[in-house]
Amino acid sequence: MLHNHKTGGAEHHLVALCEGLRERGHEVEFAGAASSWIGQTLAGSGFPVHDFDFRGHYDVAAMLRLPRLLTRNGYDLVHTHLVRAARYAQLAVRFTGTPLVCSVHDLLTWRHYPRRHALIAVSDAVRRHLVSRGFSPERVQVIHPGARDCGLGPHTAALRDVARASLAIADDTVAIGLVGRVAEVKAHDIAIAAVARLAEQVSRPFRLFVIGPLTGWGRAQQAACTRAEVEWLGARKDIPQLLAAMDICIQPSRSEGMPLAVMEAASAGKPVIASRVGGVPEIIEDGVSGLLVEPGSSRELADALARLIETPGMGRGLGDTLQQRFGREFSLPVMIERTERHYATVLGGAR
To answer: What is the value of pTM for the model shown?
Structure first.
């Protein structure tokens, strides 16, 4: 279950989880808004979709329909993502007794998660936050969400040339990628301010590519941006190819649970500069597998970018190390196997 009409890391994570569990022989169904991106995506992939557009925290019709769905279909387990689905599910399972697992994806929404059911935190940082808010440590399991492998293998060099040509990136230009929903929490304003500083620090040409759907805040940022080095590509489906075209990826977020964009950049072997927030330090060890900067500091971000631009060999080394860590800890097969094992624990070993 998940309620959101947006497209972000939690939605992509849930799609990958559903597909992975189905491949391992489980029967998976989705409850949420059928008109949403995730509802349409899962329906298009052949998953049964039960239309629940949970309206606020007190949708009486949904509160009545959900227990009936659980009783009628006899599910072994309910797994929710994000806070609204968790609220409705915990009310429903009071009547049905269905085992419940709720995934928590951020540091901001904790109040309506159940305290008597199993929780999955997407990072150690999220787990620590939940425990600090009074949740029982024994009920909170950390499972990193995992990401698709955006590496293109032996075709990387050829596809990189094609992608850079499509974006008109000259051979001597450093391409910087910022992937993710263009929202205030992602701090695109800090990235743009860093670009202004960077222009005074390096002589080599560079361009910042903003890749992701625009929110209202994002549209305002785009309209106000006057930097010629910044290009807005909008929502794209060809992220692996775009990552191949990039030399450096940045994630200057103000807050994060476990950013999908950082894990995808890791899978592609890209050097990453990211804010030291949430679960990011669980992916990146500063100076070993990437560079960490303080959130809100355009100066630190610009300095880190200049460092990688001036020493490209360093960037390649950081990217290689990060890619190896991705394979061990953040790949989809690892996430699916850990989630399946957690389900078995919640169910007492039963299928």
So the answer is: 0.81
